[in-house]
Write a structure and sequence with these properties.
Layout: H1 2-17, H2 19-39, E1 47-53, H3 58-68, E2 73-79, H4 82-90, E3 96-100, H5 104-110, E4 117-120, H6 125-150, H7 176-207, H8 209-214, H9 220-250, H10 258-282, H11 286-302, H12 315-321, H13 325-339, H14 347-367
Parallel strand pairs: 1-2, 1-3
Antiparallel strand pairs: 3-4
Helix pairs in contact: 1-9, 2-7, 2-9, 7-9, 7-10, 7-11, 7-13, 9-10, 10-13, 10-14, 13-14
């Protein structure tokens, strides 16, 4: 224990001696947590719409007014020429074209049906799919409103009316920030833990101080623990800062216990720090460590379920996510923050990440070659 205490003193002094490290550890996660949730928005807004109206009827104008008042669409162009609308698409001034044919209102009233045409700019597939879905939903809603006006008294009405009421659990206002902030916080804690831990040992290799440790009677596990414990404490501190920012800036208060979050975070940090230490044993300079860490973080983030649903991924990608520790922490954070889950609910995730921690740290200890 005396040896470990001296190593920990040395590590903390080394960390806090460098002002740039302090800025990276504390300022970078805080700034990113304040900015990223505003940019990582699942909703698609400000969709530029070009309307080609060949009918110029009251029903056509009412439908266009309903579309533009939804808050999702901006009326970029309103004309009677389809070629002009396509020019708007080609010059990236419009995202969708809605063509209203001549006789739209007449057919709707006399024949009880009419047709519309949509042309969607599909270069951005996500925006095209969501924009088209929003537009179809608004048109269907308008269609229901029109048909409701035509319905006679209930006893004479041939149509059955089914009323559906919905209740949003865990996120009643459908606020995407409540869903995204916990996941982004997990990524920031992972970046600080795995990234800085891997650079720490490599930096000592470059400046030669690790050679001085190699000729001492310090055990390998003492050395690994001396590198792991400081960043483990810093990771929990960053988590605390992130939870404070989430509460102050976004009003997010975990529905579950903070003890559950910190219990899982403590085990999770052991896993990602073990990964960072393992990477450092395979690299000889900071450039290699940075590139390898960047590659691993990109894979972890994209296959974590942060931005895309794991269920929508191909089968091979879903298998890969099972070996991604970030996936488990994001799921746990959302379960505890939104649903109020307890230790029993996250026990499977906890033991899985504990297995990662044991395996990665054992591998790091074995792989660290200490010359005496």
């Amino acid at each position: 224990m005396r040896t470990l205490r001296f190593l920990l003193q040395k590590e903390f002094r080394q960390i806090f001696r460098d002002p740039s490290i302090i800025r990276i550890i504390f300022m970078m996660p805080s700034i990113q947590l304040l900015i990223l949730p505003w940019a990582a928005d699942y909703e698609v807004k400000n969709i530029h719409l070009s309307v080609v109206d060949h009918d110029h009827s009251q029903y056509a104008r009412q439908m266009v007014n309903k579309i533009t008042s939804s808050g999702y669409f901006i009326l970029q162009d309103y004309s009677g020429s389809y070629n002009n609308a396509m020019e708007q698409i080609e010059h990236d001034k419009a995202d969708l074209v809605l063509e209203i044919p001549a006789g739209f209102e007449k057919k709707l009233i006399k024949e009880n049906e009419s047709t519309l045409f949509m042309a969607i700019n599909a270069i951005n597939g996500v925006k095209a799919n969501l924009g088209g879905a929003y537009l179809r939903s608004i048109i269907q809603d308008y269609n229901r409103e029109v048909r409701m006006k035509w319905i006679q008294l209930p006893r004479f009405s041939p149509e059955l009316q089914i009323e559906v009421t919905a209740s949003n659990w865990f996120n009643p206002l459908m606020n995407y920030k409540i869903f995204m902030v916990p996941g982004i916080l997990v990524v920031l804690v992972t970046m600080v833990g795995a990234f800085l831990a891997s650079l720490n040992i490599v930096r000592e290799k470059e400046i030669g101080t690790i050679e001085q440790i190699n000729v001492t009677p310090v055990k390998k596990y003492h050395f690994i623990l001396g590198k792991l414990i400081p960043f483990w404490i810093l990771g929990l501190l960053i988590l605390s800062i992130g939870l404070t920012i989430a509460r102050v800036a976004y009003g997010i208060i975990p529905a579950g216990s903070l003890l559950v979050i910190y219990t899982f975070a403590a085990v999770y940090l052991l896993a990602v720090l073990g990964l960072g230490l393992l990477l450092s044993t395979y690299t000889s300079n900071q450039q290699q460590a940075m590139l390898l860490s960047f590659f691993m973080m990109m894979v972890f983030i994209l296959l974590s379920g942060l931005y895309t649903s794991i269920d929508s991924m191909p089968g091979w990608a879903q298998v890969v996510t099972k070996f991604n520790p970030v996936t488990y922490f994001i799921e746990v954070m959302r379960m505890v923050v939104l649903k109020g889950s307890g230790l029993k609910d996250i026990s499977t995730h906890l033991f899985t990440v504990l297995g990662f921690a044991v395996a990665l740290n054992t591998w790091a200890v074995i792989n660290y070659k200490k010359r005496s």
